[in-house]
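Changelog-linked ticket: dTDP-4-keto-6-deoxyglucose example.
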Amino acid sequence: MNNCMDIKIGDIHQPELLDFKRIGSSTLGYISIAEKLPFEIKRVYWTYYAPHEVIRGHHAHKKLSQVIFAVSGTIKFELENIQRVQKSFILDRPEMGLYIPKLHWRTMEFSHNAVLLCLASEQYDENDYIRGYDEFVSLNDR
Ligand code: T46
């Protein structure tokens, strides 16, 4: 089992928006291609039909990195690192991805038509989740 003492906190990257461009036209439609990612993809998942008033997330990951797309609708992200530096991002274009490195506390709000697509660096592992905020910010004291 992966516990918090195993976490490498020296090499945490910054979250950022990645522009995957789009090819096509308004008459034909568009395609976007994720060829270069900061990690090898080990898992893909998508979430949808989240009610507008629900806030999802409330966790961080010990090891997992992700690139997340709103392939439909709008998703608002609030991210926080272990130094408690907060950043907000809005995904509202399908060609725009949000890179979320490990060790970022996140909450997400969805428009009802939003479909979140996640390209993930690791297989699903519940032990990779930090679901307690106090535990998350205490990592900065190490
Ligand atoms: C994240 C945001 C953007 C699985 O069984 N396998 C999986 O691969 C995933 C992602 C989830 N689950 C189960 C675990 C829970 O019982 O699905 C349920 C919902 O997962 P969770 O509460 O983590 O959902 P979100 O929307 O809060 O978070 C998810 C991802 O888990 C998380 O990594 O960053 O989407």
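Closing comment: Example verified and attached. The mean pLDDT is 92. The chain is about 5% helix and 45% strand.
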